[in-house]
Amino acid sequence: MPRSRSPVYDSQADRWQPCPSCAILLGSRPSKPTWRRSMNQRFLASLVALAAAALPHLSGQLATPAQKRPAGVQKDLAAKTKAGTIPRTPDGHPDLQGIWTNATLTPLERPADLTGKLNITDAEATAYERRRIETADADRRDGPETDVGSYNELFFDRGAHLARVDGSSRTSLIIDPADGKIPPLTPEAQKRVDDARAAVRMHPADRPSDRSLAERCIIWRTAGPPMMPGPYNNEYEIVQTPGYVTILVEMIHDARIIPLDGSKHLSPDIQLWMGDPRGHWEGDTLVVDTTNFTGKTRFSGSSDKLHLVERFNRVDANTILYKFTVDDPSSFTKPWTAEYPLRQSKGPVYEYACHEGNYALLDILRGARQEESSAAQKKNK
Predict the structure, then answer these.
(1) CA nearest neighbour of 288 among 308, 302, 305, 262
(2) 146, exposed or middle or buried, with CB in 10 Å at 0-12, 13-18, 19+?
(3) Is residue 235 part of a domain?
(4) Does residue 117 surpass a pLDDT of 90?
(5) Is a pLDDT exceeding 60 seen at residue 259?
(6) What total of structural domains would you count in the chain?
(7) What is the mean pLDDT of residues 40-63?
């Protein structure tokens, strides 16, 4: 059976799946530079207004991701950054502004063949990266499966290296528990996940709401929070003022507006796709506390009781160390934590015009009705 390699996260089934919408849309899209249109100017203007109190980006602050920098450029950037110095805003806090990417080959959970190893040597990292790149190459046609209607390698931007923290290559984004694995689900959460998967099998396309949030252009698992690496569109633009931090997400269309004014969370009765964030500074670390999630997003099996704490620590002129902790006692047997670097990028952050030309969702529903009609005709014969 032909199968698309184009991945999409099915939030109802809580797993990555081939994306039929993406496969259908591919035939109508030209190459990446054309189909990824420039950012919506009105939306950008609102972000600029929010950042009116902040200084512009420092000269020379933006750079390409590490895996794309020529050696000479990377050396020049290092020379401009004195040890122990980071850019700061007029109010003295670290300046987090800029365009950042979290693209990496490091998986969320540690692979079985790397059990017991949080870090690996440079030689091991190089070999692992080579295998991952070769295996994931969407242009390969030497396998047993026929890849029909899928994205080719041009569309992907997974990064070329493992995440490096403190100079070492990481085997998993998860650092706690020490085994690099998501803790087991509680019986209550496992039942929720099983029920959601059963509903997807029984009613895959009765109505638009049966399709995944990503196919419906509502939210991607990678958009955050937490901000997860994905197959492409891994860039985020941060705008910072004394009272707010705004994070523009490249994947789909989202912007997180994080108050820093000490205000309380919204009523628990109000649930949001990306939760209700509140930020504060702990020394040089921006801490973002987010509650009020909707249970429809189901991050790795989470519920609407998810409590997420993110930490943004600018460790040098070109890197933010991003760490998040997931705490949801109704879903996981214990909290768990992941960390990885956000590296500066030249950008720009393109508008992900998800619904433009999205006839795929309508075609999926039409196809389902046709299958039902054909099944009924066979039954009546």
Answers:
(1) 308
(2) exposed
(3) yes
(4) yes
(5) yes
(6) 1
(7) 39
Bridge-partner residues for 154, per DSSP? none
CA 295: distance to chain centroid? 18
pLDDT of residue 146: 55
User: Residue 342 has which token pair?
Assistant: 């956000």
Calculate ∠ Cα 96-100-103, nearest 5°: 145
**String of DSSP letters for 69-86:** S-HHHHHHHHHHS-TT--
CB 336 within 8 A of CB 323: no
DSSP class of residue 226 equals: S
CA 218, 221, 224, 230 torsion-angle sign: negative
d(CA 21, CA 363): 9
Residues 225 and 290: beta-carbon distance below 8 Å: yes
Question: Which amino acid does the sequence have at 220?
Answer: W
Whether residue 331 lies inside any domain: the answer is: yes
Lowest-confidence region among 90-104, 152-166, 247-261, 344-358 = 344-358
CA-CA distances (angstroms) from residue 302 to 191, 286, 306?
12, 24, 6
1 domain residue, yes or no = no
Q: How far is CA 277 from the centre of its chain?
A: 17
The pTM (predicted TM-score) of the whole model is 0.78
Q: Are 330 and 303 in contact (CB under 8 A)?
A: yes
Of the candidates 223, 217, 220, the one whose C-alpha atom is nearest the C-alpha of residue 235 is 223
Q: What is the dihedral of CA 131, 132, 136, 137, to 10 degrees?
A: -50
CA nearest to 346, candidates 49, 69, 51: 69
Q: Is residue 366 part of a domain?
A: no
User: Which range marks the domain in which residue 110 is found?
Assistant: 7-360
